[in-house]
């Protein structure tokens, strides 16, 4: 039995009962694939169900505001995915009359759609033999064939794509792609893979050479940048605060946050009040209380945010236009959402 046949046989006995497996509608397949990029199925499933209920068609998604899309996406991270999702929905609804491209080349032209997503849609929806390569696929192929090329190198990306393309079953490419992804997620896991019961054990190079833990190979990660955030959580006599949309192309574009003072290191109140950004926001008499005595460390892929939340009570502020009671309706980073959930109200701190 060939590699692909063994995988498909395993999959037919072990496939997960997931809603996007019950359709070939490209809208739902696209939605699930975008959501599951860098996200575990267990986490992404609840978001998928919310999105498909709220936006049952690509037209519904296209007609929604970006703020609403970001709010429903809140907690999934990598928010550029949500913005690209919304932009692509608008393009498909307005320029393509709601009809998704039916081939890999045109799918890949869509904003936010790369090789993996285009291959998944083309194979699952249209039975085109386009191999998917994600983290699970890299792991299965590297271990089974004993490939030492770094999977995050330009050479590795080409090598593993070509290998996956050689192996795909042209008669049932969608099933093969889902099979190899599920096999990597459930059986050939990153830690504690189920090698003793593996149907591919006899032909697995990593198993026979005892190199399972060493594969796949990755090049060293980019150095993680340490950043120090100081959020000024304002509260006026009228129970209003300053809460604005984050602009620019950096992290959290389109999400809302309190006034931010970024420093080169963790600071005390005596240092904070002399910072130029602090003086820009707070020009009148104010009472300041530090909410978290220890920095909250929020870890992103290439940066760690060491964050302090400073509660600032003052009579009024010219930019305080948002009622404290309405903050929950705005899309925010998880860092802010966790703070708001923990704080609940400012009144007990002054």
Automatic annotation (TrEMBL):
Pfam families: HHH, HhH-GPD, NUDIX_4. Its cofactor is [4Fe-4S] cluster. Gene3D superfamilies: Helix-hairpin-Helix base-excision DNA repair enzymes (C-terminal), Hypothetical protein, domain 2, Nucleoside Triphosphate Pyrophosphohydrolase. It catalyses: Hydrolyzes free adenine bases from 7,8-dihydro-8-oxoguanine:adenine mismatched double-stranded DNA, leaving an apurinic site. GO terms for molecular function: 4 iron, 4 sulfur cluster binding; 8-oxo-7,8-dihydroguanine DNA N-glycosylase activity; adenine/guanine mispair binding; metal ion binding; oxidized purine DNA binding; purine-specific mismatch base pair DNA N-glycosylase activity. Binds 1 [4Fe-4S] cluster. The keyword NADP does not apply. Keywords: 4Fe-4S, DNA damage, DNA repair, Glycosidase, Hydrolase, Iron, Iron-sulfur, Metal-binding. InterPro entries: A/G_AdeGlyc_MutY (IPR005760), DNA_glycosylase (IPR011257), Endonuclease3_FeS-loop_motif (IPR003651), Endouclease-III_FeS-bd_BS (IPR004035), HhH-GPD_domain (IPR003265), HhH_base_excis_C (IPR023170), HhH_motif (IPR000445), MIG/MutY (IPR044298). Its EC number is 3.2.2.31. Residues 35-186 form the HhH-GPD domain. One of its GO terms (biological process) is base-excision repair. Adenine glycosylase active on G-A mispairs. MutY also corrects error-prone DNA synthesis past GO lesions which are due to the oxidatively damaged form of guanine: 7,8-dihydro-8-oxoguanine (8-oxo-dGTP). Belongs to the Nth/MutY family. NCBIfam families: mutY (TIGR01084). This is Adenine DNA glycosylase. It comes from Polaribacter pacificus.
